[in-house]
Amino acid sequence: MSGLVVDLPGPAGGTDFVRVVDGVSFDVPPATTVGLIGESGSGKTMTANALIGLLPDGAETGGELRWRGEDLLKATPARRRALRGHEIAMIFQDPLAALNPTQTIARQVGEILRRSGRPRDEVRRRVVELLDRAGVPDPATRADSYPHEFSGGLRQRAVIAMALAGSPALLLADEPTTALDVTVQSRILRLLRSLQDDDGLAMVLVSHDLRVVAHVAQETVVMYAGRVAERGPTAAVLHRPAHPYTRALVQSVPAVRTRTALASPLPGTPATPANRPSGCAFHPRCPLARDRCKVERPVVREIAPGQWAACHFAEEVLSTEEVRHDAA
Ligand code: SF4
């Protein structure tokens, strides 16, 4: 995507709009996972919703969303529906909400296959294969279970099987492990990693949890108040952040240890797109902020090979002590 903009209707109505995604650019090559991280209000979920074509009513968009040569922002609603579930699929945070409690898992996983007119026995065979691929044990039997008969981890596996049913090339995962306990979380993350490595899926992983992103993503995009603060190879972004916000984010996570200090909470409250400070949106919370930061919005620029940051003083940030992420 290039310069993606999403405006949502504001509380005053009429011409009042809030820019919730403001000029976001990144690529998702095949067999690569891009982690989208940031606090709530950072625009990461809205960016994923723009990719899948599920923006709220009244949303206006700008920039480009290129998929296989086509600008999805110019595609008709019918074309977006045709792509959804087939070329681009999404898995959500709460597997229970994504499943219909009155239908068997087999029926729900097989729905997209039935709609494409495949014979019944072929649909059944494929459903069992998909459940097996997603790590559901004894899939031939468990396929006939209802969602309430599955544990939280199994339900998320069923949702992943549903997402894979349309043979997507791009999988969007919005906080896919947040509702799960830690052991199940790491199993689901291993599954997502194998879908990328073995099946060549491109993936966008939305998470507020830096450890999740460190586990799966090769590339990381850090968002703040609807804008990209930093992006680049995950190892570089986590080990050597070039943006003070990324650095604060890394230092706020207990599993992320610096050489000099234990985890420290992020200072201040997050800026929101509706209440975005002037200049650099991070300036009220930034320990390095100077007068220039209050008036001049920093552009996203390449600070090191492949590593981009929106900070007037990114070189200074990079030259200070390295931050080490144990999970990366
Ligand atoms: Fe901090 Fe200024 Fe960089 Fe913004 S531009 S992150 S306020 S130093």
Number of strands: 13
**What is the helix content?**
25-40%
CATH topology of the largest domain: Rossmann fold
Physical arrangement of strands within the biggest beta sheet: 7-8-9-3-10-11-13-12
Main structural class: alpha/beta
Bound heterogens, unique: iron/sulfur cluster
Unreliable residue stretches: 256-261
The proportion of strand residues reads 15-25%
Largest sheet: 8 strands, mixed
Q: How far is the N terminus from the C terminus?
A: 26 Å
Mean pLDDT: 91
CATH architecture classification of the largest domain? 3-Layer(aba) Sandwich
Domain ABC transporter: 6-250
Membrane topology: Peripheral membrane protein
Organism: Hamadaea flava
Family: Belongs to the ABC transporter superfamily.
List strands and helices in order, with pairings.
Blueprint: E1 2-9, E2 17-24, E3 33-37, H1 44-52, E4 60-64, E5 66-67, E6 70-71, H2 77-83, E7 88-91, H3 95-98, H4 105-115, H5 120-133, H6 139-142, H7 152-164, E8 170-174, H8 182-199, E9 202-207, H9 210-216, E10 219-224, E11 227-233, H10 234-239, H11 244-251, H12 291-295, E12 301-304, E13 307-309, H13 314-319
Parallel strand pairs: 3-9, 3-10, 7-8, 8-9
Antiparallel strand pairs: 1-2, 1-4, 5-6, 10-11, 11-13, 12-13
Helix pairs in contact: 4-5, 4-7, 5-7
The structure holds iron/sulfur cluster.
Residues 243-244, 280, 282-283, 286, 288-289, 293, 298, 311-313 line the site of iron/sulfur cluster.
